[in-house]
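Hey L., structure's done. Input below.
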Amino acid sequence: MFARVKFKIAIQNLKSLKTFAFSLVLLTFTFYLLTSAVHADEIEDLQKQIDQLNHSRELSVKATKPLEGQLDSLKIQLAQIQTNLDNLSANISAKQKELDIREDKLALQQALLEKRVKAYYIRSFLTDPLIVILSSIQAGDLFRELSYRQSVTREDKQVITSITGDMVDLLTQKAKLEKDKLRLASLQADVDKNAQFLNGEIKKAKAYQADLAGQIAAISAKQQAIIAQKLASLNIPRSAYTMQGGCVDDRSIDPGFSPRFAAFTYGVPNRVGLNQWGAKGRAEAGQSAQQILSSYYSADYTTGYNTGINIHVAGSNEYGQSFDENWNIDDYVKHLYEMPAGWPMEALKAQAIAARSYALSYTNNGQSAICPSQQCQVVKKEINDGNWQSAVDATKGVVLTSGGSPIKAWFSSTHGGYVLSSSEVGWSSTGWTKHATDTSSSVSSFSDLASSAYDRNSPWFYCDWGARAQYNKTAWLKSDELADIINVILLAKADSGTQNHLSQQDKPNPDGTDTWDGGKIRSELQNRGVKAFSSVSSINVSFDTNGGRVTSVNISGDAGSTSVNGTDFKNFFNLRAPANIQIVGPLFNFEQK
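Output:
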């Protein structure tokens, strides 16, 4: 503290220095402007980002129904700006510490500066040639003395210039730093304001969705059972090995009517853990097995795990084979048929490690049995292809673990561009499953998803599930059929007591009562003062690009326009849609022709 007081006194004394000090100020200030350009550009860039955020916020205020999915981009933008602000604040703090250190060092040189200034003026006077001549006895001494005094004077001048320059530079930088602090405080206040607004809007969006969900009647247990039966009838492939069942892309197939609409789902229901088609895409992009697995699990890649464990296989598989076998863990894995053996080796290795981990976890390291069907893992009596055996051998002793124990490394054929944690699909929460976007670049639209998802080449990546034989075995719906599904949702919202009459019309009513047809639904809506749809002209969805689920479905038709929560739409669509036509996951889109 004493050093800084002396430094401030020294700054006052600088006013008495000669013209060269003021010239030095100008040079030093110019140099600082050049060296601090990047710092100033960072602040200007932050200001532009915040201006854009303010503009986005103003647009959001004008929205009549703010939804959480619509606010995600603002939330990400705000987080990025806050990160930049934090970095800039840290830089300013570091600069402040640096300046404080420089200030202390310069204060210690104050004594030297005072001596040099005093000596400089004395020597400037004593170097007058006439004085030197009069004070000299011999001519040789005269020239030596004159030369010495001029040399010392130049040295004094250089020292004074150097110390004074450092002081002036320090003053300039301190002044600039104070201005940056003020601007940073202003920017932080603006960001805080946006953060407060954003949190409020998210609460409103959640409240709106909760209100809507609360108004729509809950689907009964019997209705849920009917939907589950419809889902099972689709024969959705759990693993990439089988090509049986699945869906057909109906976009190029004419059902014999128009206009027509179809709901296309991204991926299959289980999006937890390894995405097999995604692993193939990642392997083709050059990723290793370990990199692939890290994209789907938050688990430890453990080598040297016990290879002497035996796995007891009991039960029957989908191929009519019965088992009561005890195999060494690696022999067991070689009998698995979960991924085509002709796929890239790194994908096969990733699958082998996941399958080994699953078996060890499922059986508690061989203490209990495992079934040989898709319910557990598909096992055959025959050992799998040589490529698969090579993958198993190459990963011998490699297991995914959490807390030292193997994890139940779930996997499925196709995720549709997103990975979900176990809790997101209604399973128990686990620490090793994760939520992630399974794409090579960011996603802001369905077209981005179609071009960058690692599993985009899967035959089940984008499908309309279900079919009706009378319409060329397609899942297309007529305009009035889609309008009927919308009316069912509107009626459930208007009167929850009607929900047991709203199931699909071509199957027995699960609640044991009568199922209302389209005309009855429209009549009931009119009785409740709600305008019913007879036809739909357009339908589109809004989706959460980070969460991988539809947030709202927006419909226009002869009754005007309406918007329905994505989950509610999916549930009632599956309840009311004819035959086995289904939306099988949380992310879907509509095609219209």
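Residues 78 and 195 are 7 Å apart (CA to CA). Residues 221-268+462-592 form one domain.

-- N.
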